[in-house]
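Hypothesis: this fold can be encoded by more than one sequence.
Test: take the structure tokens below, design a sequence, compare later.
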């Protein structure tokens, strides 16, 4: 039911996306979406005021859709999965505004900042596989390249194609 549903955004860039998504759903169908709540996490838990690491509705016993701006290595998603589980909620999916379709960093890249050129899956693919949750994006790197091709913007399109060639994930 919608009453046990909630949206959550990891701090901080996804917060406006999460709020505006919930507001638009409410605008389209207030009866269905009025009972869906919202929250976001703090980078650091407060020990004063309302305290804690979550601002907004409790996650306990909620089915949670996480909305964020972008995913790179999946670190924020993993932290969010742990946060929601500790708070008693259940993540049912992740939505990001932009999927760069980027492979997860390898050991050398994490340590030295150097890409080893080896194929790897994306962070979204790894989250799907590891945790069994649905993932979706509003746009992908392929979408952006197609738009630039349609507009005849060869400079930016070629830079994005080169980026994709270097960092494209295997999933």
């Amino acid at each position: 039911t919608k009453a046990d549903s909630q949206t959550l955004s990891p701090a901080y860039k996804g917060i406006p996306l999460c709020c505006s998504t919930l507001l638009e759903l409410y605008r389209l169908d207030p009866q269905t979406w009025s009972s869906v709540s919202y929250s976001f996490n703090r980078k650091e838990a407060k020990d004063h005021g309302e305290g804690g690491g979550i601002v907004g509705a409790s996650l306990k016993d909620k089915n949670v859709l996480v909305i964020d701006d972008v995913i790179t290595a999946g670190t924020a998603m993993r932290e969010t999965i742990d946060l929601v589980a500790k708070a008693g909620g259940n993540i049912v999916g992740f939505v990001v505004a932009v999927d760069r379709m980027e492979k997860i960093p390898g050991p050398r890249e994490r340590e030295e900042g150097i890409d080893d050129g080896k194929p790897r899956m994306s962070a979204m693919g790894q989250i799907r596989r590891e945790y069994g949750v649905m993932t979706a994006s509003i746009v992908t790197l392929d979408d952006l390249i197609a738009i630039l091709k349609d507009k005849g913007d060869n400079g930016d399109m070629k830079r994005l194609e080169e980026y994709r060639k270097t960092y494209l994930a295997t999933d």
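The mean pLDDT is 88. Residues 1 and 63 are 9 Å apart (CA to CA).
Hypothesis status: open.
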